[in-house]
Input
Amino acid sequence: MIRLATTKDLPIVLYLAQSTFREKWTPIDGEVLVERYILDNMQISHFEQDFSSPNVSFFIAFHESTPVGYAKIIKHSIPQNYEHLGTKFLKIDKLYLLENVQAKGIGSEIMTLIHQIATEELFDTLWLGVWGQNTQAIAFYEKRGFSKAGNWFFQMGDKVFDDEWLMSKAISSGNYIQI
Output
């Protein structure tokens, strides 16, 4: 099950954001850098600010009634220098699942929901940033019609990661592969 998160869900979203970020990035970037990023960017005040924006939505994914992942989308977020990709953009800002539930179809369910929102609200382009060496995530997005549109940058503390990809997908009826 996936549902829209409300402000009452802030503690759950915060827990999922911090936990999934630690699981994914600590083995790659080290505990010090990851914990600093969490301290600077993943505190309740950051999420309260996002929850108050009419263009930001969070979704919580459940497995057997336990929260196991979340997604964050941002409406009308246009990637700088990529205006040629469309006129009405929907950004998938976050899509993380706890490691123990990956490959159970939950990520596909989240993507189906996001695509449905994009279609119903007449967005013409979905986009996201992904680490260029995350072959598993890239394959997941490519399977759903995304392709690399260019390079992207991500900053964690003093470190700027310039090996990020910007991936996009044009929204039109009939071009989405549901898995």
Summary: The chain has a mean pLDDT of 89.
